[in-house]
Specification:
42% helix; 228 residues; 6-stranded mixed beta sheet; alpha/beta; Aminopeptidase
């Protein structure tokens, strides 16, 4: 089991042997919601020259995680499959009303899907003097939720091990994130890196780097279910 989770085999080797892997992977038959943050009119954060949009990287990484999970027998629900947002356009809504409806509809998916886990994918950014020096992926969880804390630690460990061994960021509670509040299932939000850091922003657009992030999150999920 450990050999499967350690990054000794490639993503593609797991895909090619998915029928055998599915027989004993911890995520087999688990229902996992993957939320690619933002989308549609909401681009999320941007890099300094506004050429890299958070929403696009979120979606790319989410699809990669989905592929890994499904190849291991999990059932994956996406809050969005493409560059869209979850609201009904009637020509009357304000931007804020659209944003709020989008969040409420994502929350509805969490509440009604009978899922085993919720994972939200985002990018980070800071503004102001010295902002560009900050880097590194970080995992957030709702305060006081032990299963979510456990999941966040597994994912953060894998992000450090696989993506960047110099990343000393630790998991943190967030009480202000609507999609993490009051969920009955393990729920985390992962900021996969800083678009305000030029070097990291460039890496985050690279498909191979995105695969490493996806693998880290996938491995963290596997480790969580292994110990359940």
């Amino acid at each position: 089991m450990v050999a499967l989770i350690l990054m000794t085999a490639s993503i593609y080797e797991i895909k090619e042997n998915s029928e055998d892997v599915m027989k004993y992977m911890p995520v087999t038959n688990k229902v996992i919601i993957l939320d690619a943050g933002h989308g549609g009119i909401d681009s999320g954060t941007l890099n300094d020259d506004k050429t890299i949009l958070e929403k696009d990287i979120n979606l790319a990484i989410t699809h990669k995680i989905r592929e890994l999970l499904e190849s291991s027998g999990a059932h994956v629900i996406l809050t969005r499959e493409d560059d869209s947002s979850l609201y009904v356009e009637d020509g009357k809504k304000t931007i804020r009303q659209k944003y709020n409806e989008n969040l409420k509809n994502r929350k509805k998916i969490i509440e009604e899907s009978n899922a085993d886990m919720f994972i939200s994918i985002h990018m980070n950014a800071l503004v102001g003097k010295g902002a560009s020096k900050y880097y590194g992926a970080q995992t957030f969880y709702p305060a006081g939720k032990e299963d979510s804390i456990k999941l966040s630690k597994y994912i953060q460990q894998e992000l450090k091990r696989i993506v960047d061994k110099t990343n000393n960021r630790e998991v943190k509670p967030r009480d202000d994130l609507y999609l993490l509040k009051d969920n009955d299932i393990p729920s985390v939000l992962i900021e996969c890196g800083f678009l305000s850091n030029d070097k990291e922003a460039k890496l985050l657009t690279d498909e191979k780097y995105q695969e490493k992030i996806a693998w880290s999150i996938y491995a963290g999920i596997q480790n969580y279910f292994t110990t359940k």
